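Fill in residues.
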């Protein structure tokens, strides 16, 4: 079993307008958000990010944190599942120019609007079926992505993360640890289909054989 560890602790935090978002998270807005198209990334905030653009301060310190924590060698093979526009991939490549970095994302829009140099390494596909051989990466990262699948498919995705990583993986998923966080998540969520108490996620990891590390996206 992997370790519960916050490897995103250097990622810049911002105060989330949870009540405001709760009022806007209608079924129709969720339907649009779940298409993971232009509206989700670069449309109005009620559909998702409200503008998803590269900023060095987001991932620069975090990729260093991953490299050091997992003691990655300079030619490591790294996969980002749910890579969106390839921002984290790009910062990994800047930090580790010899590394082999690939990404998978379900969004054609994200790939088309990705960092130019990362486009050839982004595969449009689904986390539930990854186009890679068993144990073919030194580190697989999956930030806030597998919870977008319904439970059965989410289980497939966890198995796939385990398969291609051999357990050398880190993921984050929507979760809560108390009732306040639970209520906040219900307001904040636009796209997730599978979200639960942190303890229940741990049971799901055990059930699916996911042995990588993990942490939570908490709405707070
Ligand atoms: C919350 S965003 C996170 C993006 C990026 N990992 C980050 O932290 O900035 C979720 C991403 O998962 C992608 N996604 C959603 N469902 C997916 C699936 N089934 N397989 C692969 N990618 C998926 C979306 O297109 C989106 O880029």
């Amino acid at each position: 079993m992997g370790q519960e560890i916050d490897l995103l602790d250097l990622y810049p935090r911002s105060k989330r307008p949870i009540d405001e978002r709760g009022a806007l998270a209608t079924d129709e807005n969720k339907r649009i958000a779940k298409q993971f198209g232009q509206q989700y990334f670069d449309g109005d905030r009620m559909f998702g990010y409200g503008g998803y653009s590269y900023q060095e301060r987001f991932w620069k310190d975090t990729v260093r944190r991953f490299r050091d924590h997992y003691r990655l060698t300079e030619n490591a093979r790294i996969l980002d599942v749910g890579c969106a526009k390839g921002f984290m991939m790009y910062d990994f490549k800047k930090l580790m120019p010899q590394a082999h970095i690939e990404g998978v994302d379900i969004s054609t829009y994200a790939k088309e609007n990705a960092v130019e140099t990362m486009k050839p390494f982004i595969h449009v596909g689904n986390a539930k079926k990854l186009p890679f051989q068993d144990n073919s990466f030194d580190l697989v990262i999956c930030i806030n992505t597998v919870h977008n699948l319904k439970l059965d498919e989410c289980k497939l995705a966890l198995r796939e993360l385990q398969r291609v990583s051999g357990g050398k993986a880190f993921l984050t998923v929507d979760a809560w640890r108390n009732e306040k966080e639970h209520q906040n998540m219900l307001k904040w969520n636009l796209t997730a289909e599978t979200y639960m108490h942190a303890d229940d996620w741990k049971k799901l990891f055990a059930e699916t054989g996911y042995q990588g590390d993990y942490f939570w996206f908490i709405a707070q």
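The CA atoms of residues 80 and 141 lie 5 Å apart.
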